[in-house]
Design goal:
- The protein is of the alpha/beta class.
- It contains 16 helices and 14 strands.
- An 8-stranded parallel barrel has the order 5-6-7-8-10-12-13-14. Strands 1-2 form a two-stranded parallel sheet.
- Helix 11 links the parallel strand 13 and strand 14.
- Helix 10 runs parallel beside helix 11.
- The longest helix has 28 residues.
- The chain binds D-xylulose (XUL) and cobalt (II) ion.
- Cobalt (II) ion binds next to loops.
Amino acid sequence: MAVYFPEVDKVKFEGRTSTNPLAFRYYDPEQVVGGKTMEEHLRFSMAYWHTLVGDGTDMFGTGSAVRPWDNLSDPMDIAKAKAYAAFEFMEKMQIPYFCFHDVDIAPEGDSLKEFFNNLDEIVAIFKELMAQTGIKLLWGTSNLFSHPRFMHGASTSPNADVFAYSAARVKKAMELTKELGGENYVFWGGREGYETLLNTNMGLELDNLARFLRMSKEYAKEIDFNGQFLIEPKPKEPTKHQYDFDVATVLGFLNSYGLEKDFKINIEANHATLAGHTFQHELRLARVNGILGSVDANQGDELLGWDTDQFPTNIYTTALAMYEILLNGGLTPGGLNFDAKVRRGSHEAIDLFYAHIAGMDAFAQGLVIAQRMIDSGELEKFVDERYKSYTTGIGQKIVNNEVGLKELSEYAMENDQITNSSGRQEYLEAVLNRYLLES
Ligand code: XUL
Ligand code: CO
């Protein structure tokens, strides 16, 4: 069998003193943290579109990447080579899951029929490789944004033929996800938004988006696909405004269309940044509303206003993300999918290994730090203390819904000399640094 990455053997855990660039220094899949192994906590996934399809193309230049299948020209031969290379890569990297869009894995050909046949052929190869390696599918999805037919949207297109075409694609992608035992199915509304309100019927577009999601859920029930359904918020890019702007917007949308029980959220770090939020904010908001489903693990550049999809290496951020994830009781059946690409200048195949090692080690460190923070209870104790006025007296009556404005006004008339306690932000930031540096 062809070997696509001969320069790399299996990447193993060697510990923090190792200087081997092709070894993990922190990610030890078997290390137990808070009662579960790192592998069970982190549920790492490879994003097919970046790792196998991405070639470094940007709006100023063509692809720069050098890849082992560059000598091939037939699209199906390339698709097959990528399938084998993907599993070799994941096995060598000890990555237990992958995610894909339909167009990532097979050429579209000239018709839907041809595309679906191509997909079936590659999925048969995936099935075989999954059985051989034990690697599993975290989620599948359909790319309803790249082809020019989606120029005005997919389910929010003004063209009903595009709505129907998109439905056919989701139907097929969901069937394939089920066939491969996928644990989730993702909807990222690539072009579900608008460029200008001058030509947009916003009411109909939102209703159609909800119709599309409802039909998808109904079809899942019909074929007995029990994977978790996820919506991935993003505020802008490629459209000026995307309807799934952020967690709060998606929550409101799901609630107003009665879909709140059927969908959870897939939070991407760089999408949070674009929405003007921290990654932790989006995770927290989803967590406290019981809809944190899965994570697209990456990071943006603080100085750039677009989706750079960089590998996550900022331990400050991974620690706070893992803190939320642990308090959520984990992500299962979701996981941490590296929706991240190597930079255009990191054009060699070996850079894919370095990048995933960096991301996996950063999340492993984040996990250990977060578990120590939770074990000590230091932050939780501070927060509990800060809100203790709601556990007795008038505060308790407020949270028990026992008082209204009249009773509160009577109370305030007798208690209008207010004393507040410090929020101690700087002190707490130093506490966090202590956990970061001592783990
Ligand atoms: C785009 C993005 C997508 C989704 C899946 O910004 O994040 O790759 O994760 O369609
Ligand atoms: Co994503």
